[in-house]
Predict the structure.
Amino acid sequence: MKTRLKFLLLTCLTGGLLAINACRDKDGSFNIFTVQDDISLGLQVVQELENDPKINVLDSASNVQAYRYIYNLRDSILVHNELNYEKDFSWRIRIIKDDTTLNAFCTPGGYIYFYTALIKYLESEDQLAGVMGHEMAHADLRHSTDALTRQYGLGVLFDIVFGKDKGQLVRIASQIKLLQYSRQNETESDMFSVTWLYPTAYNAKGAAGFFQKLIDQGQSGGSPQWLSTHPNPDNRVQAISDKWQALGGKAGQTFTQRYNNFKALLP
């Protein structure tokens, strides 16, 4: 592992323009990890997460209708858009039974989690679609690997990818819902959420509904860490609206009653 890490660092940092380009992602961003590394790391985090007895993941076989609903929502995003890693990543979804944690997150490799508290807090299907698009963008733009690198360091992540640091893997699995993205990462994910929802039947400003509710309830200074306060919710509502207007300002559906029916399926 150390040999590989040194080789990648030397290649990407001192190997000249051709070598640097070889370390670039599909969208042109720089990422020293391979796509397979993202998948491997994400899968390991998922296994640790779902083996934690304190985390209650709703069984898909016992909650068929709820999972069918949320996967249909995911598919409506995928069918209308060309994601960088649509065919590479899993885009697997699980619901965590926890009515106190206002959260959602996506691991490297596209493993998506929604807490029941967040699902019940949102008011319409377009809002959930907006949140889902945001989380999928973090994975598809590979923001999570970048954020984990900043928080834990390259050496730690490579040890985990190669199965050499179980302790750190457990720590990351327990903390991944608190992953801190950069201001630029958050803004990019907001914009991609609008772009991906725009060709669907949804109101493409769905994610803004979540922020607006936080603002209306006086929580704009303390929103959940899964959607950073950098920039703050007020600015994000405006930025999302501006992006929607730039795309043409097409009206979309909220599917509020359908969403209420979905929420009624949850324990």
About this structure: Residues 33-264 form one domain. The two ends are 44 Å apart (CA to CA). The mean pLDDT is 84. The beta strands are 92-96, 104-107, 111-115.
